[in-house]
UniProtKB/TrEMBL annotation:
<keyword id="KW-0575">Peroxidase</keyword>
<comment type="similarity">
    <text>Belongs to the AB hydrolase superfamily. Bacterial non-heme haloperoxidase / perhydrolase family.</text>
</comment>
<protein>
    <submittedName>
        <fullName>Putative non-heme chloroperoxidase</fullName>
        <ecNumber>1.11.1.10</ecNumber>
    </submittedName>
</protein>
<feature type="domain" description="AB hydrolase-1">
    <location>
        <begin position="25"/>
        <end position="263"/>
    </location>
</feature>
<dbReference type="GO" id="GO:0016691">
    <property type="term" value="F:chloride peroxidase activity"/>
</dbReference>
<keyword id="KW-0560">Oxidoreductase</keyword>
<dbReference type="InterPro" id="IPR000073">
    <property type="entry name" value="AB_hydrolase_1"/>
</dbReference>
<dbReference type="InterPro" id="IPR029058">
    <property type="entry name" value="AB_hydrolase_fold"/>
</dbReference>
<dbReference type="Pfam" id="PF00561">
    <property type="entry name" value="Abhydrolase_1"/>
</dbReference>
<dbReference type="InterPro" id="IPR050471">
    <property type="entry name" value="AB_hydrolase"/>
</dbReference>
<dbReference type="InterPro" id="IPR000639">
    <property type="entry name" value="Epox_hydrolase-like"/>
</dbReference>
């Protein structure tokens, strides 16, 4: 299993697990909370069939990557991604991020620019800025995120059970677009994540990415479900598309947060069309 070292904690290396398959233009897939790179299983085969080199990786604290007690902030996440890209000597690559992965994309371009990058795709992403402030009245009250952190710290297993109901909108889509078994598999993956990371990542959801997005100067596609209960379309996807010059917004009708699974055919078709086109 391949790993890249992104730092140290005391006597041990901090390592990211990644998978690197296929050939052609590289596409790096960045997962959401609280999953791992394995959550892209609906997209990876289609991308490989289309002739792309597909790289997935597990964010620090999740999946098969190391579980340090620090580094859970977007400057570090972007640096981790940058280290992976450099170690694989990627050129002409596209970045595709779901949920928290949209934050990595924004901060990556904000900190490192677009050298070597060709396209960006943000799916159900947390940018541009979810926290309600004087200059961001469309945001969510900070007390909501404090409550989430308290719930995760108190009993993250119980929290994840409730979280995935709205992640997949199971009241509407269970047995139609998502199975009990798929929801259980997501819970199992979340349960294996670092307890520290599970709490610490909540604070990163309210990062301000507005300046980062202003510097995103490659063709960009934003895909978002119009029934996203985790990261509402009006607070995120619509505003992200408006902030990135020339970005195209695709709204998935009836789509919950995890449209990469429930609406995989539609999302993957849009992704392949965008990656294969001129942007």
């Amino acid at each position: 299993m391949p790993y890249v070292t992104v730092g140290k904690e005391n006597s041990g290396n901090i390592e990211l697990y990644y998978e690197d398959h296929g050939s052609g233009k590289p596409v790096v897939l960045i997962h959401g909370y609280p999953l791992s790179g394995a959550s892209w299983e609906k997209q990876v085969p289609r991308l490989l069939d289309a002739g792309y080199r597909v790289i997935t990786y597990d964010r620090r604290g999740f999946g098969k990557s190391s579980q340090p007690t620090g580094g859970y902030n977007y400057d570090t996440f972007a640096d981790d991604l940058h280290t992976l890209i450099r170690s694989l000597t990627l050129r002409d690559f596209s970045l595709v991020g779901f949920s928290m992965g949209g934050g990595e994309i924004a901060r990556y371009f904000g900190n490192y620019g677009s050298d070597g990058a060709s396209k960006a795709v943000i799916i159900g992403g947390i940018p541009p800025f979810l926290l309600k402030t004087a200059d961001n009245p469309e945001g969510v009250d900070g007390g909501v995120f404090d409550g989430i952190k308290k719930a995760v710290a108190g009993d993250r297993y119980a929290f994840f059970s409730e979280f995935f109901k709205n992640f997949y909108n199971t009241d509407l889509l269970l047995g139609k677009r998502v199975s009990d078994e798929a929801v259980r598999a997501s819970w199992n993956l979340a349960a294996g994540a670092s307890a520290t990371a599970s709490v610490a990542c909540v604070s990163t959801w309210i990062e301000d990415f507005r300046k980062d997005l202003a510097g995103l100067d490659v063709p960009t596609l934003v895909i978002h479900g119009d029934n996203d209960r985790i990261v509402p379309l009006a607070a995120s996807g619509q505003r992200t598309a408006a902030l990135v010059k020339g970005a195209r917004l695709v709204v998935v009708k009836g789509g919950p947060h995890c449209i990469t699974w429930t609406h995989a055919e539609e999302v993957t078709a849009e992704l392949l069309n965008f990656l294969g086109g001129e942007g």
